[in-house]
Amino acid sequence: MPNLNAAAARDQANPARALRRRYQVALVAIGLLSLLTFSVLELLLARGDGLASAINVAGRQRSLSQEIVYAIERNDRSRLMDVLDQLESAHHALQHGDASRGLPPTTNEATLRAFGDLEESFRGLVTAGRDRLALPASEPTSPALIERALRYEQTFLPQMHAIVGMYEADAQAVYRTAMLTQLLVAMIMLLTLVAIAAWIFEPAARRLHRQWDSLRASQERFDLAITGSQEAIWDWSLPDDRMYLSPRWAELFGDQHLPQATEVEAWFRHVASNDLPRLTEALDRLRTGQSKQIDLEIEMRSSQNERVVALCRGASARDEHGRVTRLVGSLADITAQREVLERMRDMAERDGLTGLNNRGSFHDRLELTVMRSLRDSCFNYAVLSFDFDGFKAVNDALGHSAGDALLVSIAERFQEHLPKDAVIARLGGDEFAVLLHTSEESGYGSMEALLRLCESLNTAFALPHDIGGHPIVSTASIGIVVGNASYNAAEAVLRDADAAMYAAKEAGRGQVRLFDASMHQQAIRRLRIETRLRALCFDDDFELLLQPIVDLETGKPDGFEVLLRTTGPELAGIGPDVLIPVAEETGLIIELGTWILDRAAKLLDRLDRHVGHQETVLHVNVSKRQMLHPSFAKLLRSLLSTHPQHKGRLVLEITETSVMDPRNNLRPAMSLARDLGFPLSMDDFGTGHSSLACLHQFPLDEVKIDRSFILNIEGSREFTAIYQAIVSLADHLGLKVIAEGVETEGQLAQLQAMGCAFGQGYLFDRPLSVEDAMDCLEQSFGRPTHRRTQGRNTGPAAA
Ligand code: C2E
Ligand code: CA
Ligand code: CA
C-alpha cells in the first residue's frame, strides 16, 4: 500500500508519467484480450473445419455404398475390396475421429444415435460384400445377394443422408457461433478500447477540466479587474493584424461599435491628430522590439468630440522564436486628473484675484516675444505699464475687499477694451501690464494708434466703478515702451515701461508717457533709492534740515519745518520730492517716517536745551500712507511718552491732496493725532481740489498756502484776491496761515498787507543744519528784527 500510494503521489506530481503508465497497462490488457479472442475463434474454426471434413467423408459414404452394390453386382473383386475398406475406415473415422483426415471424433449425441441406427444397414451392406468375396471368383453373383445388398444400401443411403444433414446443421451452428463470437468480440473490443481510452485519458481530462476551471476563474478575475480598474484594454495580434478592444472602449468614447472593431484604425480614429504620430511611433517601438513597454499620455476625442485624456500603457508578447506577435495594453481615462493639473498649472500662471496673467507668466510671455522679435524683424510689440493712483486710498478707506473688487473691475475693463491676443497681467498690487503685438496688421502699428488705445483705456477707467455702492473713479498712469532691437530680455522692457509709467505718474493723474532714455536714468535712480531705503540705514543716508517759519510781524522764527536731505554718496543729489514718492510706493515710508519723527523729536530736545526754553515748534511732513498705517497712533503715543514736553509742539504737515482725497479718509487719523497733542497743518494748500468751504470739515490748526500762489501774487489782482480770501477765511476759522515760498521783499510786503501772519521761504532762510538753526534762534531772540542768512545752507532746490 505505501508503494502504491507513493506511486500515486508520483503520478500526481508528474501527469506525463501517469499517462505513460496507463498506456502500458492498456497495451497489455488489449494484447491479452486479443489473444483470448483469437484462441476462441481458432477453436471454433477448427471445429467448423472438422465438421466440414465430416460432411465430406459422410457424403462419400453414400457414393461408396452405391459402389459396393455395383461391385457386388459386377463381381468386381478388387474394386469391391477397395471400396469395402474405404467404407469401413471412413465409418470408423467418422465416429471416432481421424487426425489425418482432419476429422474430430463425433460428440453430438443425436449424430451418435443416428450412427447406432445406421449400424445394421452398414453391417448388412459390408457383410453382403464380404459374402460375395468369400465366393469363388468364377461363380456369378446370385440375384438374392444382389437383392440383399441393394436392400441394405436402400436403408443405408437415407440414414447416411440424415447424418450428413446433422453434420451440416452442426457446422452451420458452429459458423453462426463463430460469427456471433466475432461480432461480440468486436463489440467487446470496441467497448474495451473506449473504456481503456477513457481510463487512459481520465487524468488528462481531469487536468484539462481543472485547467479550464482555473482559466475561467482567471478570465473572470481578469474581467472583474478590468471592470474595477475602469481601464480599456487593447490587444493587437500582429500576424493577422486583428485588434481586440474591450467593452470599456464603448463607454469611454461613446461609440457602441468600437468593441466589435477589429482594425487598429478604429482606435486611431479617436486619437487627436497632434498626438497620433507620438502614439504610432511608440507602438512601432514596441513592434520592433526597441521598447519592451510604453507609457504615454495621449489626447483623444469621443464620438461626441469631447476631450478624453488617456494614459496609454502597452507591452509586447513574443512567440517561441522571439518574434513580437502581440501588443497588449490598456487605456486609462485621466481626463479629470489632467484637468486638475491644468487648472493647477493655470492657477500658477494666473493672478488669483483677477484671473489675469501673473507677473511670472507675463514675464515668460514677454521673454518669448522679445526673443521672437530679435529673430523676426517684422514682429513688433509694445508693453504698457499701468499704475492706478487711487488704489491704495480705496484699500485704506474702504477695506481690502473693496480694493479687491476695484481690481477685478479694472481687470474686466482691460479685457473689454483690449484685443483678444493682448497679454494682460496684474503684476501685483495695483500694477498692471499689457503686452501688445504691434505689427502692421494688428492695428497698433503706429505711435498714434497706441496713444489712442491708452486714451480709450483711460476713458474706460474714468467711468465710476461701483464698489459696494460707492462710485469709485480710478485713473491710470500709463507708461509705453515700444520693443526694439536693443532689448534682449524681458526685464529691460519691463523696467523701461515702468520708468515711463513713473514719468506719467509724476505728470499727474491719467497721463500717458512714452519711454525715452532719460526715463531710464530715472528708473535707475528709483532703483537706487529703493535699494538704499530697503537697507534701512537711515542714519547713514539721511539728515534733517530745519527751515525757519517766520512771524511776519516780528521777523522772528516761530518754528522750523523739518526737511529731509540725503547724505550718503549713493543718494547724493536726490531731493525729498523724488525720494518720498518712492518711499510711499514701496511702503518704506512707514519706517522712514518713524525715523524722521523720532529724529525730529530729538532735534527739538537739542534746540530746547540750546535756547533754554521750550517754545520752539517743529513742523514735520507726514505722508498719508504713514498716517493711515495702524502703527501711527502707537508711534505718536510713544513719542509723547518719551518727550512729554513736546506736546503741542510737533506740528504734522499733511498735503491738501492727501486730506481731500475721498478715498483716503484721513479724518480719523487726523482727529486722533490732534487729540493726542499734535497740531495739524494743511500743506500745499491751493494745489488740491478743495474749496475753501471744505476747510472747516477737517480737524486743522494751520494752512500753508502753496508756493505757486505767491509766485503770481505780485502781478495778478485775481491771485491777490484769492490769497486774501484764504487768509481771511482761515483767520475766521481760527487757523494759522503760513505763506510758503517767500522769496522777495515785494512778496513779503504784500503778505504783510494782507494780514498774513507767517511766512517761510528763501527770503528768510534756506533749510538750515541744526547748528545753524540754533544760531538762528539765538540771534533772533537776541535781536527783534528778522535776519537774512542767504546761502548759509541750501537745500536741493538751490543746488
Ligand atoms: P514741502 O512740504 O512743501 O516743503 C517745502 C519745500 O519748499 C522744501 O523743498 C523747501 O526746501 C522748499 N522751499 C522753501 N522755501 C522756498 C522758497 O522760497 N523758494 C523755493 N523755490 N522753494 C522753497 P524740499 O525740501 O525739496 O521738499 C520738497 C517736498 O518734499 C516737501 O514739500 C515735502 O512735501 C517733501 N518732504 C520734505 N521732507 C519731508 C519729510 O521729512 N517727510 C515727508 N513726508 N515729506 C517731506
Ligand atoms: Ca511741508
Ligand atoms: Ca509745502
List keywords for this structure.
binds ligand C2E, five-stranded antiparallel beta sheet, 57% helix, disordered C terminus, alpha/beta, eight-stranded mixed β-barrel, 20 strands, 26 helices, 799 residues, binds calcium ion
Q: Radius of gyration over alpha carbons?
A: 67 Å
Give the spatial strand order of the biggest sheet: 13-14-15-16-17-18-19-20
% residues in beta strands: 15-25%
Tell me the distance between the termini.
Answer: 125 Å
Strand count, sense and closure of the main sheet? 8 strands, mixed, barrel
Account of the 3D structure:
With 799 residues, this protein is of the alpha/beta class. Helices cover 57% and strands 16% of the residues. It contains 26 helices and 20 strands. The strands form 4 sheets. An 8-stranded mixed β-barrel has the order 13-14-15-16-17-18-19-20, surrounded by 5 helices. A 5-stranded antiparallel beta sheet has the order 2-1-5-4-3, with helices on both faces. Strand 4 and strand 5 (324-333) form a beta hairpin. The radius of gyration is 67 Å and the shape is rod-shaped. The two termini are 125 Å apart. Bound molecules: ligand C2E and calcium ion (CA) (2 copies). Ligand C2E is lined by residues 547, 562-564, 575-577, 580, 596, 621-623, 653, 683-684, 707, 741-743, 760-762, 767, 795-797.
